[in-house]
Amino acid sequence: MALLNEKPRVFLEEFRVKNAPNDYGMADEKWNFKKFAKNFRIVIVRMDNFEMEFDLIGIQPAFANAFRRLMLSEVPSMAIEKVMIRNNTSIIQDEVLAHRLGLIPLRADPRLFEYRPEGATDGTEFNTLEFALKVKCSMNKSQPKDSFRAEDLYENHSVYSSQIKWQPIGNQASVHKEADIGPVHADILVSKMRPGHELDLTLVAVKGIGRDHAKFSPVATASYRLLPEVTLTREVRGSEASLLQSCFAPGVIGLDSEGRAYVRDARYDTCSRNVFRYDEIKDAVILSRVRDHFIFSVESTGAMHPSVIFVEAVKVLRDKCKSFLDELNKFN
């Protein structure tokens, strides 16, 4: 049990959550940079173009929560801000249509653009992207005689994000590739139409942050949780082992060839504490969470790679710290 007490932990009992003995919380610990640099680690568990799971180890909750909040509300992205409607004869009201278009994630690197100055009425090639959406629904002249499906009867009866076309401003066409600008997903449904309905729109996208509007947030979600730990205090086998296995999420508890239970991977435990419902096995486990080991899950909307989003959040925090120190130095 000596090994169990090396890390700061929160223990999950049947009716309460408590800290380890002689552990009064990380907030009371004196900050030591050398100790932090020695213990801090980042471990990437999985990563693709849209999702990333990584561990922040040896860090205080305030920093972990700061990174989460920065990714949600301070890292910028490009989003449709204004919609100029020349014609909208669809059944969707103008303001609802504009709102739907604003929430479509755009593939455009915000680091290559500037913020539009407050009060500016016209955009430039350095701070604005323009798109056009011009679609008209009509009858399909070659429709099958015995079909009643909208796909066969009408042309352009569904308006998708793939029909939003980029209109380069100034020298943008030579700076940005057409494949790098536009909606992230081509199959987002914008509107349903019938013959006689028409959309003729100009869309203006600018750089912004999620603190101003959720459409500018580069992540669909960013969350973290403490690393779970499951420790068996005695041997559990047979029917008790099967019962113990059923109390945890799949993959947490395994059974060996002799029917004995063992901890396969506590990382995926949801900390439901179902094991405390059964008197015969509730004394066989100790449930805890490591207080300085955070499992982060970041899901990008597609504008930026999730790893880039986290790095940008770190840069934002760095700049905020510099600004704070500069303000303090003014009083010296």
From TrEMBL:
<dbReference type="GO" id="GO:0003899">
    <property type="term" value="F:DNA-directed RNA polymerase activity"/>
</dbReference>
<dbReference type="InterPro" id="IPR011262">
    <property type="entry name" value="DNA-dir_RNA_pol_insert"/>
</dbReference>
<dbReference type="InterPro" id="IPR033901">
    <property type="entry name" value="RNAPI/III_AC40"/>
</dbReference>
<dbReference type="InterPro" id="IPR011263">
    <property type="entry name" value="DNA-dir_RNA_pol_RpoA/D/Rpb3"/>
</dbReference>
<keyword id="KW-0804">Transcription</keyword>
<dbReference type="InterPro" id="IPR022842">
    <property type="entry name" value="RNAP_Rpo3/Rpb3/RPAC1"/>
</dbReference>
<dbReference type="InterPro" id="IPR001514">
    <property type="entry name" value="DNA-dir_RNA_pol_30-40kDasu_CS"/>
</dbReference>
<comment type="similarity">
    <text>Belongs to the archaeal Rpo3/eukaryotic RPB3 RNA polymerase subunit family.</text>
</comment>
<dbReference type="InterPro" id="IPR050518">
    <property type="entry name" value="Rpo3/RPB3_RNA_Pol_subunit"/>
</dbReference>
<dbReference type="GO" id="GO:0006351">
    <property type="term" value="P:DNA-templated transcription"/>
</dbReference>
<feature type="domain" description="DNA-directed RNA polymerase RpoA/D/Rpb3-type">
    <location>
        <begin position="51"/>
        <end position="327"/>
    </location>
</feature>
<keyword id="KW-0240">DNA-directed RNA polymerase</keyword>
<dbReference type="GO" id="GO:0005666">
    <property type="term" value="C:RNA polymerase III complex"/>
</dbReference>
<dbReference type="Pfam" id="PF01000">
    <property type="entry name" value="RNA_pol_A_bac"/>
</dbReference>
<dbReference type="GO" id="GO:0046983">
    <property type="term" value="F:protein dimerization activity"/>
</dbReference>
<protein>
    <recommendedName>
        <fullName>DNA-directed RNA polymerases I and III subunit RPAC1</fullName>
    </recommendedName>
</protein>
<dbReference type="InterPro" id="IPR036643">
    <property type="entry name" value="RNApol_insert_sf"/>
</dbReference>
<dbReference type="GO" id="GO:0003677">
    <property type="term" value="F:DNA binding"/>
</dbReference>
<dbReference type="Pfam" id="PF01193">
    <property type="entry name" value="RNA_pol_L"/>
</dbReference>
<dbReference type="GO" id="GO:0005736">
    <property type="term" value="C:RNA polymerase I complex"/>
</dbReference>
<dbReference type="InterPro" id="IPR036603">
    <property type="entry name" value="RBP11-like"/>
</dbReference>
<keyword id="KW-0539">Nucleus</keyword>
